[in-house]
Design goal:
Structural class: mainly beta
Largest sheet: 6 strands, antiparallel
Distance between the termini: 16 Å
Helix content: under 10%
CATH class: Mainly Beta
Number of domains: 1
Order of helices and strands: EHEEEEEEEEEEE
Number of strands: 12
Number of helices: 1
CATH superfamily: YhcH/YjgK/YiaL
Shape: globular
Length: 148
């Protein structure tokens, strides 16, 4: 997992050969007038989802095997969980079409605010969009990038 400021995003291009194109796309977009939904960046290699949503009080941990996740909050703030997966129990069997499985686990939380990003590698357990003190509205983008 990587947590850093948006202006440092390009430092991490070396982690995946598809990141350079993705980072250019992110840098050249404005999101104020875009409708929520899925936006293609490079076919199945990378795409972006713009979401207006409520933070959650509870959720299972999730894991992906094929795609990196890059989470960027545009408005509001969320608690974002990360777990090493120690002491986990599988809640759902991995779905290769959706590239996701859900688990119960313990973990750590950080607060994600505008101006920062969190990057999750394939195989890292995480729990996004969790509430802080109460449920609130957030606007965020989630970029999916196929692993190497």
């Amino acid at each position: 997992m990587v947590i850093d400021k948006i202006e440092n995003l390009e430092k991490y291009a070396c982690l995946n050969d598809k990141f350079k194109k993705v980072f250019e796309f992110i840098k050249n977009q404005t999101y104020e007038n875009k409708s929520p939904g899925k936006y293609e960046i490079d076919g199945k290699n990378s795409y972006l989802s713009l979401n207006i949503m409520q933070t959650r009080e509870s959720a299972d941990w999730e894991i992906h095997h094929k795609y990196w996740d890059i989470h960027i909050v545009l408005k509001g703030q969320e608690n974002f969980g990360w777990s090493s997966g120690e002491g986990f129990s599988e809640e759902t069997v991995y779905d290769p079409e959706k590239d996701i499985a859900f688990y119960s686990s313990d973990g750590e939380y950080v607060t994600l605010t505008p101006g920062y990003f969190i990057m999750i590698a394939p195989g890292e357990m995480h729990k996004p969009a969790m509430m802080l003190e109460q449920v609130s509205s957030i606007t965020k983008i989630v970029i999916k990038v196929l692993g190497k």
